Amino acid sequence: MISNLRRKIVCFAPGKLGPQHLARFQKGSGVYPNLLIVNVLEDDPRGWLTEPGPLAERMVVVGQHPAEQNKIGKIRAVLRVLNEHRPEVVILAGYNDCTQVAAGLWARKMGAVCIMQSDTWAGDRPRYWLKEFIKRHLFIQPCIDAAFVPGERASHYLQSLGIPSTAIWQGAYVADNEYFSRKSQEARDQAASWQSRLDLPADYFLSVARLSPEKNLLRLLQAFGRYREMGGDWSLVIVGSGPQENQLRQVARSARWGSQVRFAGWRQYEQLPAYYALARCFVLPSLVEPWGLVVNEAMACGAPVLVSRKCGCLPELGRSDINGFDFDPYDTEALAHLLRRVSRGSLDLAAMGKASRKIIAGLTLDTWGQAFQDCIETTMLVGKDRSLSNEKP
After folding, report:
1. Same-domain check for residues 125 and 189
2. Contact, 116 vs 107, CB < 8 A?
3. How many domains is the chain built from?
4. Most buried of 18, 137, 276, 358 (most Cβ within 10 A)?
């Protein structure tokens, strides 16, 4: 496929812009020199210390000025950017924000191709028929020409909303595998130093997540307590911060096994590979998780993974008996037994870690860049025709 590299493209970034997003946009800007990134700020519960670096000159930030602090102000700012740049392609960061709806309607009116990035899937939260009907008939079918999603679950959900499978590209969520692989190996080469610096136990399960109810860390603590009662001797390290932190710490403090739980707090991108590298196994117990990019990161570091069945990254990343196991996040007893099975020495965890690296090798910044380009170029050829076919006479 021959790409017109000079295409004028406006791509909306998520408000919670982190290093992983910047790595992808850097790859995209290498393909399309005229790519403009629009970052609509929102309250960010995470503390990324992220500078756009070389991307600063091609990034517009909405929400910094007093006039852009409310929804109307943000919509006006977004429309001002679109009217100024007149892109051929508008790439949305979902559909739940009013600025994204406004941008989609602008693309429809102006005849620009509109591609939606979306990670949501049918089972990640309750669905209500009226809201789904409105979403499908008043926005997605009239405005969206194609979608760029992480995997199979998100693809199936958008197909249920009227986007054909031929207009959906997968592979939208990748980590910087090379970075995590390299940094994790450096940490393993200096394991004793990193364990001392980060106050890490010798053998531990690791969970990296926001400390909030949807991440299900309270049940993980309950399962870990049961695991210790069953004779398990590994520790648990939790990296992250959030509104549930005090409650989780109190639960651990009041338990007999509480000394075996380490709360590491929020950690910046540069420190994460060491936590992944020295962990024996990674656990993501979420009740609501559109994808779970931390699983990508853990796998790139060579960790076996235990993944909740409520995570959108199944089935792509978690493959039972190959690189780890999936589990019911509501069943703490079953999770406790799974933790015991992993830690008692009957499984080849090194082989599982190698399998993680092999699986995640299919989701890289390069594969993201190719899917990103394919999505844009193919949609430029057929997207408008699909959109017009949805018009009623």
Report:
1. no
2. no
3. 2
4. 276
**Which token pair is 252?**
């651990």
Give the separation between CA 339 and CA 341, rounded to whole angstroms.
5
CA 171 – CA 240 distance, rounded (Å): 26
Q: Strands across the sheet with 204-208, in order?
A: 261-265, 235-239, 204-208, 281-284, 305-308, 324-327
Q: Quick check: is 190 in a domain? A: yes
Rounded distance between C-alpha atoms, residue 14 and residue 89, angstroms = 17
Q: Which of 291, 343, 298 is nearest to 323 (CA)?
A: 298
For residue 244, being part of any structural domain is answered with yes
For 20-48, what is each residue's pLDDT tens digit?
Answer: 888 999 999 888 999 999 999 876 544 55
**What backbone torsions phi and psi does residue 387 show, to the nearest 5 degrees?**
-65, -40
- β-strand partners of 281: 205
Phi, psi of 225 (to 5 degrees): -60, -45
pLDDT at 383: 54
| Cβ proximity of 379 and 115 under 8 Å | yes
Percent of the chain scored above 70 by pLDDT? 94
pLDDT digits (tens, 9 = 90+) for 109-165: 999 999 999 999 999 888 999 999 999 999 999 999 999 999 999 999 999 999 999
300-326: pLDDT as tens digits: 999 999 999 999 999 999 999 999 999
- Determine if the peptide bond prior to 315 is cis (ω within 30°): yes
Q: Which helix (H) or strand (E) holds 108?
A: helix 98-110
